[in-house]
Design brief:
- The protein has helices at 2-22, 31-44, 46-62, 69-93, 95-103, 188-196, 216-231, 249-259, 301-310, 318-323, 350-363, 386-408, and strands spanning 131-138, 152-158, 167-173, 200-204, 237-247, 279-283, 337-342, 368-373.
- Helix 2 (31-44) crosses helix 3.
- The protein starts with a helix and ends with a helix.
- The longest helix is centred in the N-terminal third of the chain and has 25 residues, at 69-93.
- An eight-stranded mixed β-sheet has the order 1-2-4-3-5-6-7-8, with helices on both faces.
- The protein has two domains: 2-92; 95-408, Rossmann fold (3-Layer(aba) Sandwich).
- The model has no long low-confidence stretch (mean pLDDT 95).
- Helices cover 43% and strands 13% of the residues.
- It is α/β, with parallel strands linked by helices and 411 residues long.
- The radius of gyration is 22 Å and the shape is globular.
Length: 411
Amino acid sequence: MTAPNVFLGLSVLGLLLSLNVYARVRLSGQLLIANFFFGWLRGELVLWTLVLEGLVTLGFVSQGALDAPAGQVGLGLTIVSWGLLLAAHGRGVRAGEELAAALSQLGLAADRKVSVFHGFPNPFQFGHADVKRIHDVEYGESLPGDQGGRNRLDLVVPKAATEGDLRPVLLQVHGGAWIIGDKREQGRPLMREMAARGWVCVAINYRLSPKGTMPDHIVDVKRSIAWIRENIAAYGGDPDFVCITGGSAGGHLSSLAALTANDPRFQPGFERVDTRLDACVPFYGVFDFLDRADDRTLGKMVDAIGPQVFKCTPEENPELWDAVCPVVRVHAESPPFFVIQGSHDSLVMTEEADTFVAALREKSTQPVLHSELVGAQHAFEIFQSPRTEHAVLAVAAFLENVRREKEKAPA
């Protein structure tokens, strides 16, 4: 019988994919992307996965899939698979406990609870009645390596914001392995929340490789900071209070920007602009291209992105490779950091975040918070989900505390 056998085959596949979500699986080579992609989608869209697979299962049952032993075994495997997914969803619901532990270092806590159904049925609902988005503002001229529109930013602002306000500013830097990505794709739940709280948020594009070559990426981030200093007041923002965030490559660039204030090699032609930042929140960032601590056991960044992003080897230009590694740019005056990482991240190892946090805590005089979210995959916070909402609320508590502490500091 066809239906029972097909159902059994799909059930085995579903169980393997659910195991990939629940267990921390580390693969390399051609399997790496599949490991990430299916773990990411199923892990953050558990409720949608259960609904869709439930409908498929009902369809097979109506076709007589349970009339044969193969179909009955398939149903058993499907139930086990769903159990694993529900357990994974529970981890996301409980992510607030992990983030609360980090916030407790500063005596902070999230200011509202999160529903177990947050983001369902619409995980892409990023709008807010009190928030508007302003598109495609140029933050500087188009430079060599621009693929078109990479010198533009979007603003996510409170509708009530007016020129003359002094609202705190959050700069969002997208990820994409320094090769792909766009300002419209990442950080949206966080920017929506912060804008609803009265912040002015700025999401930027930057030059991408292979047309752009490191350090073009960080130069563009610095150019956007210069634009904020000069222009953000017109949108109600405070040019003297700017925090930064980003995920993956954006986590790298945001951390690097925070640790290299006023470094002239990253500010060609605008060396005198003050590019200091007040806080940094990197999500699953890359902190050491050279992997000095041997945290990457299944593939090195030098091999993965060197030819396209740097276009040179560390031996050919050691100064450049070192200069753009946040882990070696840590210093006593580093701004406050909140480093967020997923335990099940397939693309950036949790150990790399541990090494970076240890370096920060050794040298920085400012608070360093760190939260490893159990079960979270790379790019987890792109969707609206309970885990995303917990992370957003924790970051909001952290950033607003940084703002309060600065306001209390003597001028």
